[in-house]
Automatic annotation (TrEMBL):
Belongs to the class-II aminoacyl-tRNA synthetase family. Catalyzes the attachment of alanine to tRNA(Ala) in a two-step reaction: alanine is first activated by ATP to form Ala-AMP and then transferred to the acceptor end of tRNA(Ala). Also edits incorrectly charged Ser-tRNA(Ala) and Gly-tRNA(Ala) via its editing domain. Its cofactor is Zn(2+). Signal peptide: none annotated. This is Alanine--tRNA ligase. The chain holds residues 1 to 482 of 875 of the full protein. Keywords: Aminoacyl-tRNA synthetase, ATP-binding, Coiled coil, Cytoplasm, Ligase, Metal-binding, Nucleotide-binding, Protein biosynthesis, RNA-binding, tRNA-binding, Zinc.
Length: 482
């Protein structure tokens, strides 16, 4: 089954169960100071769960664009190294606002996975909250009993508070959850494991696909838990992981969600995917990052020097550097992948199709700008590495990381990544100190500025400063959802 059909089937399935389909909210969060990017399907329903807003429908379903690169959920370091954590991914979800609860949520999840998608029942495991004494919480017997009706008991795993109890924040709605995991190891490998029912959940082919959260408590500010007057269901399933399971692949990147991108990159670079591990990581990082960058720009967030904009710039520069070092791209290449984003995701997310040329132009400008300093920055870093090695030292000093940041546009996490590749570490505190010094310096300078005109130093060659025009254009091209 193709990815597009898999997504459609999810929505159809829940529509048949009287759910209302709601489009994805933007990936960039503009009205919540506690969150920069949407990181779960439930974000757009937060107010309904908090009781601040009357839900428009008792049951909804959607496919939400999520980004997990900052704050509580930051998967950036995993991306490309493993085969199932992405920066940007789609989270399929179904919700009940005070309507159905555990019984239906569990039965429907199972029905969809096994009967509609035809996943092998023997490969599925579920987890149930085991309880927590410190919080006076007993095990989620209700969920356990519903699961027991459909899954052999040895496939129900008890999970701790860390994995199986969800909380919105310090206070507010919370409750136990049940996760569904799938064991995608080849048959031969599974048979070699004695007592296969005690599956090793940490194996890279045993992955979590769906999380069913049952909100039934409210955490008060004194830490105590009260029963919620209305109980809710909030589920989230990683679409790319589901597609991988259905298409029976050993990596999300081998599904039709990513393979057109890998193919295009192979053609452009002349290198093959699947030959060398380090090159493969570069391939995976780039085809992952281009999605995050494109979707975020489509939602109105341009790369910039602070906050959400800097997160995007960091991701983009990370991709450029992977392409430069491991795939041999010395000129802009990412922007050319925008056509594929539009082709593959334009139906469900029309904003990427409508703004294709704009997205591609922004990426091109960013890439060009960073490529102008990347080579010199890397040479400078090589020099530092040689110096450190001659002294037998292993830590890149804060001043050097700051110089790379300030003069060559290297985000700290990029320098840190390159350092790790050479088995070096980085003095982050030293970097922060340099950053503070610079801020104080520029504050002092701006206090002295008297005239109307500030001269921009043209010699740094680091910052692309053509965004006024682009930014204006971005406001004109309004984002639309259907
Ligand atoms: P994991 O333990 O694998 O990091 P999670 O427990 O952090 O996942 P949840 O917050 O429960 O994930 O999100 C619901 C679902 O979203 C997960 O079951 C998984 O299928 C998917 N998911 C979570 N993080 C990612 C990611 N970075 N990339 C792709 N899918 C993800
Ligand atoms: Mg996680
Ligand atoms: Mg998990
Ligand atoms: Mg989870």
């Amino acid at each position: 089954m193709e990815a597009k059909k898999i997504r459609r089937t999810f929505i159809d399935f829940f529509e048949k169960k009287k759910h209302h389909y709601v489009p994805s909210s933007p990936i960039v969060v503009k009205n919540d100071p506690t969150l920069m990017f949407t990181n779960a399907g439930m974000n757009q329903f937060k107010d309904a769960f908090l009781g601040n807003e009357e839900p428009k429908f008792p049951r909804v379903a959607n496919s939400q664009k999520c980004l997990r690169v900052s704050g509580k959920h930051n998967d950036l370091e995993e991306v490309g190294v493993d085969t199932y954590h992405h920066t940007m991914f789609e989270m399929l979800g179904n919700w009940s606002f005070g309507d159905y609860f555990k019984k239906e949520a569990i039965a429907w999840a199972w029905e969809l996975l096994t009967e509609v998608y035809g996943l092998d029942k023997d490969r599925l495991y579920v987890s149930v909250f085991e309880g927590d004494e410190s919080d006076n919480l007993s095990m989620d017997k209700e969920a356990f009993d519903f699961w027991k009706e459909i899954v052999p008991e040895e496939r129900i795993i008890m999970g701790s508070k860390k994995d199986n109890f969800w909380e919105m924040g310090e206070t507010g709605p919370c409750g136990p959850c049940s996760e569904i995991h799938i064991d995608l190891r080849p048959d031969e490998e599974r048979e070699q494991v004695p007592g296969n029912e005690l599956v090793n959940m940490d194996h890279e082919q045993v992955i979590e696909i769906w999380n069913l959260v049952f909100m039934q408590f409210n955490r008060l500010s004194d830490g105590s838990l009260k029963n919620l007057p209305a109980r809710h269901v909030d589920t989230g399933m990683g679409f790319e992981r589901l597609v991988r399971a259905i298409q029976n692949k050993s990596s999300n990147y081998d599904t039709d969600l990513f393979s057109p991108f890998l193919k295009a990159l192979e053609e452009k670079s002349g290198k093959k995917y699947g030959v060398d591990e380090q090159t493969d990581i570069a391939f995976r990082v780039i085809v992952d990052h281009i999605r995050a960058i494109s979707f975020t720009i489509a939602d109105g967030q341009l790369p910039s020097n602070n906050k959400a904009g800097y997160v995007i710039r960091r991701i983009l520069r990370r991709a450029v550097r992977y392409g430069y070092t491991f795939l041999g791209f010395t000129s802009p290449f990412l922007y050319e992948l925008c056509d594929l984003i539009s082709e593959n995701f334009g139906d469900i997310f029309p904003e990427v199709r409508l703004q294709k040329d704009f997205i591609s132009k922004v990426i091109f400008e960013e890439e060009s700008s960073f490529l102008r300093t990347l080579d010199n920055g890397l040479k400078r870093l090589d020099q530092i590495k040689a110096e450190l090695s001659s002294k037998g030292e292993k830590v890149i000093p804060g001043e050097v990381a700051f110089e790379l940041y300030d003069t060559f546009g290297f985000p700290l996490d990029l320098t840190s990544l390159i350092a790790r590749e050479s088995r070096l570490s980085l003095d982050e505190k030293g970097f922060e100190k340099e950053m503070e010094i610079q801020k104080t310096r520029s504050r002092a300078a701006s206090e002295q500025e008297m005239g109307d005109w500030v001269s921009l130093r043209p010699d740094t060659g680091v910052e692309f400063i053509g965004y006024d025009f682009l930014e204006a254009k971005c406001h004109i091209i309004k984002y639309r959802t259907v």
